[in-house]
Structures are given as C-alpha cells and as structure tokens.
Automatic annotation (TrEMBL):
Domain of life per record: Bacteria
GO molecular function, one term: metal ion binding
GO process annotations (BP): L-arginine biosynthetic process
Occurrences of domain Peptidase M20 dimerisation (ranges): 167-267
Cofactors required: Zn(2+)
InterPro entries: ArgE/DapE_CS, Bact_exopeptidase_dim_dom, Peptidase_M20, Peptidase_M20_dimer, Peptidase_M20A
Record protein name field: Peptidase M20 dimerisation domain-containing protein
Entry keyword annotation includes Disulfide bond: no
Length: 364
C-alpha cells in the first residue's frame, strides 16, 4: 500500500499557492484513515493550509510525539507528476522530498491504531516548507502551545544510505539590491555597473566568511537569482537585484539575526540587504534518550547500524527546535531533489514505515 499511496500523492500538483490542490490532497489523506479513530484539524494562515491528524479523545497540542512533514513541492513539468516505478525506485516530483515520508507516517499511524495501540502522537502536514515554512510550521510553532517530547520529520537527506539527522544548518535567504550609475554600454568607465557591485560584494562575503561552497559542515553562499531593470542591451545597469541562499553553521552565528548583522557590516554603501526567510541552526544531542531509542529501532529494522549525522538543508523541524523541542529527521534513501528524475528508494521507504510504527509504540 505504501507504494500506491506515494504514487497517488505524487499526482497532486501541490505547488505553493495552489490551495485547491492542497485541499484535494488533504481530502485524499483523510480518506485513508478511519473516522472512528482519527480526527482532522485544518490551520490556514496567509493562504497556507496545514493539516493536523490526531486520535479521537486526544488534544493534539499535548501529543508527546509530533511527526511533521511537508506536502508542498517546487514547480515541475506536468510529466513529473506522473509517477513511475522501476529498478527498485519510485520516480516523480516530491517522491523523496517528501511525499514518500508523508505516506510512511500516515500509514504507520493507521497501522499502529488498527492493531490496538493508541499512542500520544500527532501528525502535522504543512504546505509551504519549500518557500520558507513561516506560515505553516513557523506559524503553528509560534502560536499554539505545543508540548512534544520529541519532533520527528520523516525526510531523507541522503542519496547513499539511511541516516538519522540531528544537525541542520541555519538558513538565510537574502535579497541584495545594488544602486549604481547608468551609462552607455560602450563607455563603462562613465558608469558604475550595479551587477558588478553585486558580484564583487558576493565574492567579498565568501572570502570574508571563508566560504568555498564545498561539501561539509560549513557555511555555503549560493547566488540563485540575478536581475536588472534593463530593457535594452547597450546600457550599464544602474540597479540590480540578487537573491542569495545561505546555509550557515554556528561558527557564523547561533541565530540568523547574528549572521545577518555580520553580513551587513561587510556591505558597501551602494548595497542594501533584506531578509526573505531565515531559520537557526539545529543541533540535538546524540545522548538524548529519544534519539538513542530512535537509532536503536532504526538499526534493528535495517539489520545494520544506522548512523547519526548532519543535513546541509534546513527543514520545518528548525521552527520547533527554536522553541526548545528536540528534533531529528529520518527518511528513505533518494536523490535528484528538485530535479527532473527525483526518486525514492522503495526498500528504505518500507523500512521507514516499520521504523515509525515501532517508534510510535514507545509513546503509547
């Protein structure tokens, strides 16, 4: 059933802003769970719709274990919403990020309840993680009095092996705006090119903070958007805008505010910076009882040692970590996140479902 449910979830084009599509996918998820046992609550904030699933007679805000995942995906071609299974993998937009994880946690919850277990568990499914998460997990973590002992996200950050994630880099999405001096394109010495100002500034930031954009537990700075107001080719642009995707470690600040303040001190007068979205780095101690218990269960199911490591990306878990709740991630193996051939591994998807069933039993 896990493969079927994941395939059906992939078919929904849950891109940010398509609220009717989110209503449809949430209705489908509701249809999977018997109403005799399960309740559903919907939270909408500034056009973002989140779904909460919990047991009859329980207050989801007091759940001891909160499983959190996102159903939104980045935009894709229509063909990417047609799932296919081959070579032990399921392909399609959102397969690894993270509709296979959503399917696993929903079916695991159903399985444990139908077998007679009634754990203190709630599922939170959000619709804006790919655009920052502030109006889903961010809003809910700030505006509801939650009491989880542990927050678990069934998301898989690895392409080569199953692993528990206890550390995430902080996120800082910045918009830089440069103001230069316009001139004719044949006489650049008479103007001040706003694009050059941006490129020089970004290179300075990388040098100042020791960024080389190689793999590891270290800060990265990626220029992902660049534009000018130019409507013609032969004009030196006097205004340009860049958007940076920065993932930072505690070396450069324990909070986005700290790191942003450090960045601002490095900017020339011609450039202003605005924060688009941000989350703090996450670190959960490996000695935490709930994490050690998760690692033991995962290792038993896998038949081999499941390690604990870090993620380059940030997830909705960071909002709960900022409130002081211990968090971790574990998901299936997969690859090509945000790419045309995104995939999730079927075997580790099945392992994830079994891990979640056994882990939920600890909260009965």
């Amino acid at each position: 059933m896990l493969h079927t449910v994941t395939s059906e979830l992939i078919r929904f084009q849950t891109e940010a802003g398509k609220i009717e599509e989110f209503k449809k996918v949430y209705a489908y998820i509701e249809s999977l769970l018997p109403k005799d046992f399960f309740c559903f609550e919907y939270i909408e904030h500034t056009g973002i719709l989140s779904q909460v699933i919990f047991l009859q007679g329980q207050d989801w805000k007091k759940a001891r274990l909160l499983l959190c995942g996102h159903i939104d995906v980045i935009p894709a071609e229509p063909s990417q919403y047609e799932p296919r299974i081959e070579d032990g993998k399921i392909f399609g937009r959102g397969s690894i990020d993270m509709k296979s994880g959503i399917a696993a946690m929903v079916l695991a919850f159903k399985s444990i309840v139908e077998s007679g277990g009634f754990p203190s568990v709630a599922l939170l499914i959000t619709g804006d993680e790919e655009i920052g998460g502030e109006n889903g997990a961010g809003y809910i973590s700030q505006n509801f009095e939650l009491k989880p002992e542990f927050v678990l996200v069934p998301d898989g950050p690895r392409v080569d092996r199953m692993e528990i994630t206890n550390q995430e880099k902080g996120l800082l999405w910045l918009k830089l705006e440069a103001n230069g001096v316009a001139a004719h394109g044949s006489r650049p010495w008479l103007g001040k090119n706003a694009v050059d100002l941006l490129i020089d500034t970004i290179n300075h930031l990388k040098e100042h903070f020791g960024v080389d954009n190689t793999q590891g537990w270290k800060t990265t700075i990626s220029l992902n958007k660049l534009s000018t107001d130019n409507q013609v080719t032969n004009k030196i642009p006097d205004r340009a805008e860049a958007v940076l995707d920065i993932r930072f470690t505690e070396e450069h600040g324990l909070t986005p505010h700290d790191f942003f303040a450090n960045i601002q001190r490095q900017l020339p007068s011609e450039i202003t910076a605005t924060v688009i979205s941000s989350t703090a780095p996450v670190s959960t101690s490996k000695s935490l009882t709930q994490l050690q218990q998760l690692q033991k269960i995962a290792s038993d199911v896998a038949g081999e040692e499941i390690g604990v490591g870090y993620s380059d990306a940030s997830h909705d878990a960071s909002f709960f970590a900022a409130k002081g709740f211990p968090t971790a991630l574990i998901g299936p193996v997969g690859g090509n996140w945000h790419g045309k051939n995104e995939w999730a591994d079927l075997k580790t998807m099945e392992m994830l479902e079994q891990i979640l069933i056994k882990y939920m039993q600890a909260f009965v």
